[in-house]
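Table 4 source record.
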Amino acid sequence: FLDCPLLSQVTFGSGVTTIGTYAFYECISLKKINIPNKLTTISDYAFSRSGLEELNIPENVTSIGAHAFEECLSLKTVTIGKGQKSLGDYSFTLSPNLIRMNFLGNYQDTYISLFAFGDGNNPNLKFYRYPTRAGWPPVGNGIIFYAYEGELFVPILLIDTVSKGLRTFGF
């Protein structure tokens, strides 16, 4: 469906486990998707430049590829389920209307790649994490995440422990 500007709805089969590279690239009329229960991987550029407005990534998805949701100009809110293990380079960059990123699980084993959330080009983005029954989940290793607030570059989340690599970060 690469560069299919009139595609407005997608129904995934129940057995789909991977959304391939460039699968819905530049599908600007695609506003909403329902990710199937068995999906584990969203590949590089899968929804880049699409018209998605809100995104709920369930816990069964463990990998989001590089640039997977890059330049989604209508994207406002993203919720990432507790199964996430890897966020690729620039996976949510250049999405200027993205204002809320919700983390639902324990991210001590999550590998967050280079500029996963942009390099200062998501100026209104705020991060939220939610408590589990065991309390607030650890999300990192003594790193302060930054985002723009007006013209200020401010810390928004102090993270605690990450066991896998954490490369250079920018927002």
